[in-house]
Amino acid sequence: MIAILAFLAVIALLALWWISRQGLMAKPWLETDSVATLAGPGDPKLPAAQIGLGIFMAVVGALFALLVSAYVLRAQLGDWRGFPLPGIVWANTLPLLAASLALEWARAGARRGDMARAQAGVIGGAGAAAVFIAGQLWAWSILVSNGYAITSGPAGSFFYLMTAAHGVHVIGGIVALARPITKIRRRDEIAAIRLSIDLAATYWLFMLLVWVVLLLVLSGWAAAFLALCGQIIAGSGVR
Questions:
Q1: Residue 174 in domain
Q2: pLDDT tens across 74-117, in order?
Q3: What's the total number of domains in the chain?
């Protein structure tokens, strides 16, 4: 259960960080700006798209929290047989990191009005994400060739289920990147382009963090770390 709480804590910290960036923690009654600078009733400070993304990430975070919960509980049974992860699973973190960095680069370009840089960043992010998907398929093929198919045991079933769930959301993110590219090529308003790229960059950072947590759980590093923390706490006499 500690692993579940740790995962939820990561998601909660991400949500708080996102909220702080969007200004939801602001106290308008303490603002000293003039009335002319304040948004009117028909001009909300936070776009509906950002609220929608926040809700969507909360739902996705809850989904993966449930998967991690089921994984931890199932791993406690006697018939659980783990297996070593192929090296490509670890190396595959790099293209996902590259996708997130490319979107951050695109976001910085959009804020400066450099649409060429913004478009290049979005396209680069989509390409890096596609490499990640290819790496996942390669990892699956290696596991199958080593005798770890989806039906080889509960550990294998959970690995395929959790990585497939993450992969589906990555593919959805790749498809969604067509939206900011289309906006740039149509020469839409800069504000609309910035918002679209900002949403994409936030989503890809979320996908990267979810992948890191899943990787730590599936590799057993998270359980080992939490067990070590438990031993330290027990040894110190903390109740």
A1: yes
A2: 888 888 888 888 999 999 999 999 999 999 999 999 999 999 99
A3: 1
**Residue 104 covered by a domain:** yes
Residue 185 inside a domain? The answer is: yes
Distances (CA, A) of 107 to 34, 100, 127, 239: 30, 10, 17, 47
* CA–CA dist 196, 47 (Å, integer): 11
For residue 28, the 8-state DSSP code is G
Domain of residue 124, residue span: 86-234
Helices (H) and strands (E) in the chain, counts: 9, 0
Residues 121-153: pLDDT tens digits?
999 999 999 999 999 999 999 999 998 988 888
Domain of 220: which CATH number? 1.20.120.80
Angle, vertex CA 170, rays to CA 168 and CA 173, nearest 5: 115
The tokens describing 180, both together, are 């900011």
In a domain, 67, yes or no: no
What is the reported pTM?
0.77
Please report, in angstroms and rounded to a whole number, the separation of the first and last CA atoms in the chain.
17
Is 81 in contact with 73 (CB distance < 8 Å)?
A: no
